[in-house]
Amino acid sequence: MLDVDKAYAVTEPTPLGAHDLSLILKLLQKIKVLSEIVLNKADVGNKKLIEKIAKKFKIRISIEIPYSEELVKAYCEKNLKGVVSLI
User: What's the whole-model pTM score?
Assistant: First the structure.
């Protein structure tokens, strides 16, 4: 991740997602790369876990993607046309 302007850390609102996010953000902070958080499956789990980490690192959650069976199906079929509106 060297020589980039910004990194997007994609995570889910779970304890494991929060743990991994903290590790990634520590690394990005250490190598001085600006970052934002993308919250996947934002409506499943405990969003407050991720909000707490975002606050700690002074990083914003730039996008929240809700869980969607339609999106999962489209992804599995490698057909993402028309599902961008779900995000």
Answer: 0.84
Torsion over CA: 9, 48, 87, 41 (sign): positive
Is 33:6 a contact under the CB 8 Å cutoff?
yes
Q: What would the pLDDT profile of 20-71 be if each residue is shown by its tens digit?
A: 999 999 999 999 999 999 999 999 999 999 999 999 999 999 999 999 888 8
Helix (H) or strand (E) holding 46: none
Write out the two tokens for 72.
Answer: 């999962």
For residue 40, give Cα distances in angstroms to 2, 13, 20, 54, 62.
24, 8, 14, 14, 11
